[in-house]
Amino acid sequence: MKKTKVITTEEILLTLCHSVTQVLAAAGNDKVAYSPMVQKIQKTCLRPDLGCFVLFDGGFSGLVIINFTSQAAMEIYRKYMMSMGMPESELANFHTSDEVGNVMGELMNQIVGDFTNRVRMELQTSINQSQPKMMAINKQVQIMINTQLDQPQARRVTFSTPNHAIFYMELSMDKTEFIQLHDFSPVQDENPDDIIANTNATDAEPVEVMTSADVDDDFLKDLGL
Fold first, then answer.
1. What one-character DSSP code corresponds to residue 91?
2. pLDDT: is 138 or 107 the higher one?
3. What is the pLDDT of residue 28?
């Protein structure tokens, strides 16, 4: 008998970890790593110095929180902005700056967006995300989901930057398992860049165009002239 494949909370968490590292790598932070050990926690909290949270619901409901230390937030922010050509002299100097909060909120939005896309392709279900909320805080703030979760589970993963700054990601979600009933091929996400490139290549193919002189010559030949 074929063994049934089961996807658990930890594997969903691993998918989220991959989204964090790949989005940050695309934003100029290509050596961010996460611990191979995950913590089981009782509650999710925003913690100093810069905290961000996003709610999601749909196939399953939950909450994602990323808590950045000031050092981690500034390192990620500066590398991201400089990778886009921003002069170092024009960058914000403090993690409490609105610009830093906006940039980290944008990255958080991209991370959860990548995660929801992976869930759609790999688990064949859909979840929707809320707008990220980012805030600079100096004390712990507990965050609770405004929906009733069945047997909520909370996990915490430690991340580190190349300069050894630390930040933490916390996930709270329903206790759930995805059980694969039969084999299927995950839907491949279409890359907009590839679509544009293919369109441009098609447009660039040479097309034979008849000039008015060619048309006149053919017409005269048909008349025997």
1. S
2. 107
3. 95
